[in-house]
Automatic annotation (TrEMBL):
Family annotation (SUPFAM superfamilies): GntR ligand-binding domain-like, Winged helix' DNA-binding domain
Natural source organism: Sediminispirochaeta smaragdinae (strain DSM 11293 / JCM 15392 / SEBR 4228) (Spirochaeta smaragdinae)
UniProt name for this protein: GntR domain protein
DNA-binding listed as a keyword: yes
Keywords: DNA-binding, Transcription, Transcription regulation
Pfam families registered for this protein in UniProt: FCD, GntR
HTH gntR-type domain residues: 9-77
């Protein structure tokens, strides 16, 4: 019989496990205070360092808020909090070509799924919101900054069709994380017009209730953006090396 390795937990990790279970099971509800350091020391029969390390770990996990001079409180779990916890790591990942490619692939998978769902399920009010965002695109073709805002609005309106707070939050975050790509690609002459025309084709597929047509339009749109991005980055590398 193969041997199985048993990993001994540190004292603070056991405290974390117990408090996590308490939070999960509603012993401590959102915005309620955890016991004080001294009370936790007595409850678990441990010293102050173990309690403080456990509290720090729970804070790092995003489960509690700790303010100087006050007792830790249970945080409300939200998508935005989750995203905020991830943002620093994401920004570092995006500094490498591999990391950027990974997030671009995530965007492609998500947005293709979004337009397919929109073509099947979008209601008249949701389509109207896409039309308004598209009209905003058209009116701001000569203003890069305003066009970028309307571009975000169009893609976010697609996410909102799902009614899924996680998807909506993830799309908002992807847009934020990939903002440099949007700025770089829109700087290319004529790109705002090309993006506007791509959005028209995407919306046309949605209004025709044709998921395949909408998907093809979105794939073409994102592929064209990726090509411009790669070209611009190559130019930056060439200029920095000259």
């Amino acid at each position: 019989m193969a041997k199985r390795i048993i990993h001994r937990k540190k004292i603070y990790e056991e405290i974390v496990d117990h408090l996590f279970d308490d939070i999960k099971n509603g012993v401590y509800k959102v915005n309620e205070e955890l016991p004080s350091e001294r009370e936790l020391m007595e409850e678990f029969g441990v010293g102050r360092p173990a309690v403080r390390e456990a509290i720090s770990k729970l804070e790092l996990m995003g489960l509690i808020d700790v303010r100087s001079g006050s007792v830790a409180k249970v945080r409300e779990p939200t998508i935005q909090r989750l995203v905020d916890e991830m943002s620093g790591v994401v920004q570092l990942l995006l500094m490498s070509p591999e990391g950027e490619a990974t997030f671009q692939e995530i965007r492609l998978i998500l947005e293709v799924a979004l337009v397919r769902k929109a073509a099947r399920d979008a209601g008249s009010e949701q389509i109207r919101k896409l039309e308004l965002a598209l009209e905003d695109n058209r009116q701001n073709l000569n203003d890069r900054n305003k066009f970028a805002e309307s571009d975000l609005s169009f893609h976010q309106a697609l996410a909102e069709i799902t009614g899924n707070s996680v998807i909506i939050g993830v799309m908002q975050s992807l847009s934020s994380w990939l903002m440099r790509k949007r700025e770089v690609t829109l700087a290319k002459s004529g790109q705002s017009k090309m993006a506007f025309e791509a959005h028209q084709k995407i919306l046309d597929g949605i209004k025709k209730r044709n998921p395949d047509l909408a998907e093809t339009a979105m794939q073409d749109h994102l592929s064209q953006i990726q090509n411009i991005w790669a070209e611009q980055i190559d130019n930056e590398i060439s200029e920095s090396g000259s």
